[in-house]
Amino acid sequence: MWLHEWAYERKLGDDLRRRLPPGDLGLPFIGNMWAFLRAFKSGAPDYFIDSFVGRYGRTGIYKSFMFGSPTIMVTIPETCKQVLMDDEHFVTGWPKAAVELVGKKSFIGISPEEHKWLRKLTSAPINGPDSLSTYLKFIEETVVSTLEKWTEMGQIEFLTEVRRFTFRIIMHIFLSVEGESVMESLERVYTDLNYGIRAMAIKVPGFAYHRALKARKKLVEVLQSTLNNRRSSRVKGHSEKAKDMMDFLIDVEDEDGRRLDDEEIIDTLIMYLNAGHESSGHITMWATTFLQENHEYLEKAKAEQEEIRRNMLPTQNGLKLKDIKKMEYLSKVIDETLRVVNISFVSFRQATSNVYVNGYLIPKGWKVQVWYRSVHMDPKVYPDPKEFNPSRWHGLVPKAGAFLAFGGGSRLCPGNDLAKLEISVFLHYFLLGYRLERLNPGCRLRYLPHPRPTDNCLAKIVKLPASSR
User: Fold this and answer.
1) 413 among annotated binding-site residues
2) Distance between CA 220 and CA 267 in Å, rounded?
3) Between 33-41 and 47-56, two packed helices, what is the crossing angle to 10 degrees?
4) Is 70 helix (H, G, I), strand (E, B) or coil?
5) Ordered alpha helix ranges (H), 57-207
6) Is the domain covering 2-468 a CATH 1.10.630.10 domain?
């Protein structure tokens, strides 16, 4: 183990080596990955960072060796904030394997300047008020029809069905695709892609990363074919007003007239489509189950939705954005679900120069992991962190770096408003008309790539009698 550390640290010189944070680089080649995987696969994910805290104290910064690179892990609000807000000294640093899957021209693979440019071009059609208002009607119609269908299906894997529901929405927004067979086929491909993003890069049949590479290849083929057809239609004079995200990405240009090339369009779509249904689907499932298991919070959330419904004008047809903004308690439910579940438990950066954080050196070129999960589950930051308690958010304004559900700094998740809109609309209709009956409420959990019950939340969706609605 000491030889492994020496091989990477000797280049720094004795003075700089002494300024490194506490920690260890683990075994040669493997580093700390076995300890990481063992903790997450044993059902005790917090043990991994807790083991560093127990050995080296609550310094909030530790050296390690993760995903094939010497790595500094930051784990408390103060150190996380410094890394996330400092674009000069920290750039995106995802493992090469993840960049290969999501795309070299996606947000996780491009330079800070390119990221700023691409984010500016794509933010309005994702989170802009006009766009959200446009999406709301389709989301609402999909929620209503999907909930009704689930009641007729009997026993379902609730998580699987919710992921299909969120995928249907994101595919409509981005590609105007609504065919059920196409949806299910592409959704399965995206599942394979997502499972490989945080897996070890083993290109051997049977391993998650190998399946993910095949999924990536298929997605690129499908998207390139669709893109070719769109461009061909335009050449033939069949161009129509932009109707989805792909059309927008084909048309958009900056002030200098620069447009996106095919690789940029495809990688952007793969990134948004993957993130847009995985996170929303899992958080929708967990928020629903948490409320169903906590009667006090369920009644508070339901009462708020009933009040919103009562205050609608008789002529109003469906929800409006102004109604979503009134869902203050439901917003707390969603934030608390994001905190407890930690869909994205870590993000990746890389130091562009030697930089000091909390008095410790992060060497130039070393990877940096920002551990969102350790912040959200820290009892010094959130008392009784494992308890689901939306009321903790009453009057609480988290200090910088203390709530990282959508990341932070210039790389804050660009689809956060759309995600919360989807979840809010779903919970509105669910609370007012349905009940979840889990078949295995004590089911064991898996934590990679995202926390989920091993049975994918096997349950029945029951329609409430009219007197209860």
Assistant:
1) yes
2) 8
3) 130
4) strand
5) 77-85, 96-102, 112-127, 129-153, 158-175, 180-197
6) yes
